[in-house]
Amino acid sequence: MRTQVAIVGGGPSGLLLSQLLHLSGIESVVLERRSRAHVMGRIRAGVLEPGTARLLRRAGVGDRMDREGHPHGGTHLSVRNQGFRVDFEALVSEQVIVYGQTEVTKDLYAARDAHEGTIIDEVEGVTLHDAGGETPHVTWVKDGTEHRLDCDWIAGCDGFHGVSRRSIPASVLTEYERVYPFGWLGILSETPPVAEELIYANHARGFALCSMRNANLSRYYLQVPNTDTADAWSDDAFWSELRKRIPSAAAEVLQTGPSIEKSIAPLRSFVAEPMRWGRLCLVGDAAHIVPPTGAKGLNLAMSDVHYLHEALRHWYEGDRAAIDGYSARALSRVWKATRFSWWFTTLMHRFPDQHPFDQHLREAELDLLATSPRAQAAFAENYVGLPL
Ligand code: RFL
Ligand code: PHB
């Protein structure tokens, strides 16, 4: 089998890349390790930057997002159980859209199916060959039979645990990593969200986040030690702890109910560079991870896709040098989002070895954010996403 671009991984990055390439007349094949039901059932990101929303519209997959997504013109931050609002519209003339990654993924699958795109799922043992040379190809096993796909380019869209990054020789790759000493315990509940917009809460007991998917589906998170397990947290214990950490006014009106999903995600910052080696380009979580505090992971994956799609389009039009700029262009945005996510995580969480001095500094910085329009503008500019 032959194609122009072999895409390893059928998450949001791989699917959007194949859709944009298709619209530019470039063929691709997507190889996904999991079943489609598994990929579509994963509950992850919830906030889309306006730049991501524009990209999805350009890819022809924005209709349902515009109908069913919820534009948010601001967000709430909270300290010592007192909330304050940062007004994105007033400060930077932008809104984010609350629309789940699960829905983005469904829309992308629907679009690829409508265009008869080739997505091969439940593949095993994906192996990259000659990615650093001139005859790149990918092999895998499906239903006990080995297959081979020859291509011009390989896009590594296979997430943090994928095979693509590991195919690059260690002598070529530099990896930067920070693992945070806590995780996020997240629950989904069929209850109305506690507020119309998100609430990010700093509290001496630990961070909390109130988010949502729609008018009757709420998503809440609590900072917990890395050693905790989701099973050890009863729903009652979760709600009781959440009430202690969020603004008092929100705690009073919080509606609780049984959780329909409960899991713990570890928090890490990770960047691998360069993002290109020969004929292999890394995209999204395969190359970088941010802690979820700034809601940047999916959005960064989408901006990588945008840069790679442009570079490949130019390459197929005869501009062979365009691809040389891909890694530096993507990493420039990645590092800025890595900085913001690290800063916001540090500001909002409680660290195990933290001194009362550190909590005072965090509270002082949050007081500054509550009262300084300039500090708020810098926050808003980063939260809604730097320009592509
Ligand atoms: P994905 O989504 O991990 O998809 C990779 C795909 O590759 C497949 N795969 C393979 N396929 C073939 N062969 C192999 N060897 C393979 N190995 C892996 C996998 O099965 C999978 O289908 O990466 P992608 O496409 O780069 O997308 C990245 C985003 O999923 C991720 O950044 C976000 O979910 C991060 N994130 C958030 N991002 C935001 O922008 N806003 C948010 O509000 C936000 N909240 C979150 C988040 C991530 C979270 N978790 C669970 C990590 C909240 C949480 C709790
Ligand atoms: C979510 O709704 O899952 C969500 C929202 C904002 C974040 C992270 C996760 O910063």
The computed structural class is alpha+beta
CATH top level of the largest domain is Alpha Beta
CATH architectural type of the largest domain: 3-Layer(bba) Sandwich
Largest sheet: 8 strands, mixed
Mean pLDDT: 97
Report the count of strand segments. Answer: 20
Oligomer: single chain
- Span of the ends, CA to CA: 35 Å
Unreliable parts? none
Written description of the protein model:
- The strands form four sheets. The chain has an eight-stranded mixed β-sheet with strand order 6-5-14-15-16-13-17-20. The chain has a six-stranded mixed β-sheet with strand order 8-2-1-12-19-18, covered by helices on one side. A three-stranded antiparallel β-sheet has the order 3-7-4.
- With 388 residues, the protein is of the alpha+beta class.
- It folds into two domains: 5-72 and 97-177 and 268-344, 3-Layer(bba) Sandwich (FAD/NAD(P)-binding domain), CATH 3.50.50; 180-266 and 350-383, D-Amino Acid Oxidase, Chain A, domain 2.
- Helices cover 36% and strands 28% of the residues.
- The two termini are 35 Å apart.
- The longest helix has 23 residues, at 326-348.
- 8-demethyl-8-dimethylamino-flavin-adenine-dinucleotide (RFL) binds at residues 8-14, 31-34, 39, 44-47, 101, 123, 126, 157-159, 161-163, 184, 186, 265, 284-285, 292, 295-299, 301.
Notable features of this structure?
single chain, 388 residues, alpha+beta, FAD/NAD(P)-binding domain, D-Amino Acid Oxidase, Chain A, domain 2, 8-stranded mixed β-sheet, 6-stranded mixed β-sheet, 20 strands, 36% helix, 28% strand, globular, binds 8-demethyl-8-dimethylamino-flavin-adenine-dinucleotide, binds P-hydroxybenzoic acid
